[in-house]
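ping. complex inputs:
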Amino acid sequence: MPPKGKAAPKPKGSDTTKTSSSLTAAAQPASSTAPNNTTPPATINERSQRRVDECQPYEAARQKAGLRGLSQAEQFGWVSARFARSDAAARSRLGPKSQRELWRYVNDASLPVRVLKKKLVSNPWGVDRNGRDIGSYSPAQFDDRAAKRINLTVLAAASQAFRDCRERTKKIALDDQQNPDVATDSEVQEERERRREMAKLRKELYGDKMPGKLAQDPEWDDVLPIPHEEPEGSLAAISYPDDYAEAISYLRAVMENKEYSPRCLRLTEYIIGMNSSHYTVWLFRASIVIALKLPFVDELAWLNKVALEHLKNYQIWHHRHLLVENYYPSIAGSPEAVASFAAQEQAFLSDILEQDTKNYHVWSYRSYLVGKLGLWDNAAELAAIEAMIKDDVRNNSAWSHRFYLVFSNPAHSTAGTAATEPDPAAPAAIVDREVQYAQDKIHLAPQNQSPWNYLHGVLVKGGRKLGSVEPFVADFVRHLGDDDKEDVISTHALDLLAEIYAEKGDKEKADLALRRLGEKWDRIRIGYWEWRRKCLESPAAAGGTEAGVAAAVAA
Amino acid sequence: MARPSNTPSPSTRNKNIVDQAKGGEEEDEEEIVVSHIYPSFMIPDIFTGYPPVRDALVTDSSVAQDQIANECRHFVAGEDDILEYNEHGVPRLSRDKHIRFLHLALGGLPGRFVAVDASRPWFLYWAISGLTILGEDVSRYRNAVAETARSMQNDTGGFGGGCRQLSHMATSYAVVLALALVGGEEAFEVIDRKAIWRWLCRLKQPDGGFQVCLGGEEDIRGAYCAAVIIKLLNLPLDLAPESPAWTEEGDKNLLTGLGDYVRRCQTFEGGISGQPDAEAHGAYAFCALGCLSLLGHPSQVIPRYLDVPRLIAWLSSRQYAPEGGFSGRTNKLVDGCYSHWVGGCFPLIEACLSGATTGGADLAAGSLPPAPESLFSREGLIRYILCCCQDLTRKGGLRDKPGKSPDAYHSCYVLSGLSSAQHQWELVPPEEQEEEPASAGTEPATSTTRSVAAAAVADPLWVVLPYFEGVQIFDQRDRVRPIHPVYAIPHRNQQAIRNYFLAKEGF
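pong. complex structure:
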């Protein structure tokens, strides 16, 4: 394939090189009579100039000093050379003797009869990719360049041969309904190397842009990419980096053909590496994994790596979800397999949550996993959550997960019960345990809302009266209403206390608690506290409908 | 029970409170600074001091919280001497800068934005919505939005994140809203309604919810976005047979079970999670309330599916002092975007509660009193937005919190939150509303079944007023435009697109 260079004068290429070298050989004998120059030429232009000079001995000197400035011998030499080169008609003006003498002299002095043009075309070698005159190269540099050009020509020929051969064999294979690609892996790899080498050379020689990774990959030769077309004046258009634009154009093509293949899998990985929130790619990847029945473990191992690199990513977790959905039926029959998978997932989840303890997607996946694998009574799951709460008692995500884990257990919960509704199936022992757990954690940091919300949720779920924890709650509020001595260690306690008072029908104290919250202890929420005060006057009110329901259940 | 040893005694803590009320821990120093430089500011001390009740126990969460509260305190306290504050210690809204920032966001994005290649429709909505709220005329983008949207639409229905990307609920929602914002037939006609209807049918799940894209996750974003799209485009509610939720009896439609799905997302905390069994999160609370408010009158629908008192308790807990802004989850930090996601819940909650007093409401809400003038501190939110969320360098734009870079997402939702804090909405009770014209939207979807179109459920009628209760801490010129509390676009844009499709016969 001919090189596509923009800059250099290709056609002159290697031929010129050859010509010049043969000229060098021919001109060599002349050097003895030519102006002696022992230092090698510094540049190609200088070398050319010297060759010109060597063809025309004494000409340089003449130009410098004029004909009269030359010695007689030099003058004779110069004139002889002119005569030798002039046409026969001019020479015929000399007598036969003079002509004989002339030729003898020309012979003795090895004067060149045929010469290079006196004046060099300006810039005969063209410029390189940096706009530098190639004539200003040193001979070594020039030879190097020439060698590269030859190398490129050879590679291009080999590459063309590869394509032609592949094309031919593919045709035959298709006719015979065989696997169309008969190129062996090593051949493909060789070709890949070859193209890489060619691209490098073209860039070096001609400044050609490196072709896209996929465009020069023989593996993708048969795919015609669908390039991105953005309508004129479209908004928020991204100037895609070349690699991304190329990859996406190939993605479009293979998705259009619904091609589920290993190379497409690699393509998705490549794109995800550049843009991990490209949901289309993720779903395509999932289809490939499932269609090719790729080993779940491999995909998961890869996914773990990606997840750790892109902590905030949404798609990774849905992908994991899809994988598990697909994989689970194959292990569902074996409790050991499920347990081992669960342990493995828990280990990974712990790793990732260590880096981002409240990552919403990770926690959502974790709750999905609990339901899918039935980890309700899995001791490790509860222990993992406890460890996280121990690390940071304010980690609400962990609290939230605990609530789900404990109270959605199908063994002792009623399906379809809303989260804020009492569930008669919730065992008293578990409710007790969870109340105690929340209370223990509240002691660590009483103004931490997480365990308070949890406590409230547990009481409601268990159908307990809020008042059942009144002594505990009351301890965080001292001398309510006494201006000098009033002390609130937790506004959440005061909030719950207001609900408890309302539940008991003690509107006055409930009102006082809410008023103090709005006036002093939690002023930013005064609008809410005022509304709660109004709630006290409503019929079923108290702190909320669920309190009423809870009371009804308890009754 | 013994008092936890790490809790200070009442006397020392009260002293701290007094100190904090003066503006900081170091009494002397703070006193000088405050009285010397900003003598005339009227900043309530809840925004300048620490909250009166704090724990001593240090964990990762408390470290992060203290750090941000401290940082915001300085911004809210008007301590930045390059800024001009009004007598309430509030800087002006840098309208021009934000406008410039948002116009720029619509221009070309550099290569490093490749990560948002699947969210470009959001940039259209965020920027155009932000500009609209700031009072800009965005109709000049009509043609460009239409063309861009067209390139993202798939023949199989819906809009993807870009050319030839799978259609996604979120991006379709964003495109439809962007088209509604620029308005006009040219924009509306881009949407292939029949195809988007079919596509929605395929996403509808037997449990009532919606997948966000084919093969994608099912979550509450899907529920909200689907409801908005169905309503704005006046799509028929009939299910196409290719829907996973389709039954032979034909007793299911696009909205069947949607309320139940939302109900399953309420958590024990009272807030709403992205999908059942996860943690309560501010963004999903808005999706839940928005979705329910589209199923009927909020005063009837919201209490039918949600535990309203617990929800209000949780929503109210999202507002922190001294920051004044909202957080998205319990024990997480404030973030400007929740000005919309959480702040935007309050008009819907207020509508839910106010319906009760007029007697037209469900029994569940009947026991709840209407909201007082405001369920949250509008002053706090406005202070947070104007003091902490504005990038006041040359760049402009609005942000998550001090120290973060502004972006289109935060600009849109912070401004949307500002708009909702500056206005109040009233909902005309259901029985006082006129019925929709019977002919509208009843065009059969197919030749065999008679369609129940989205229009059959009468649209609740919202009326907006500027909020004037109490002290107005912002300059009157900084009042931004109101937007519809459910659709998050101005009322007239919502009406225009809806009326356009109501008037259409068939697809």
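The radius of gyration of chain B is 24 Å.
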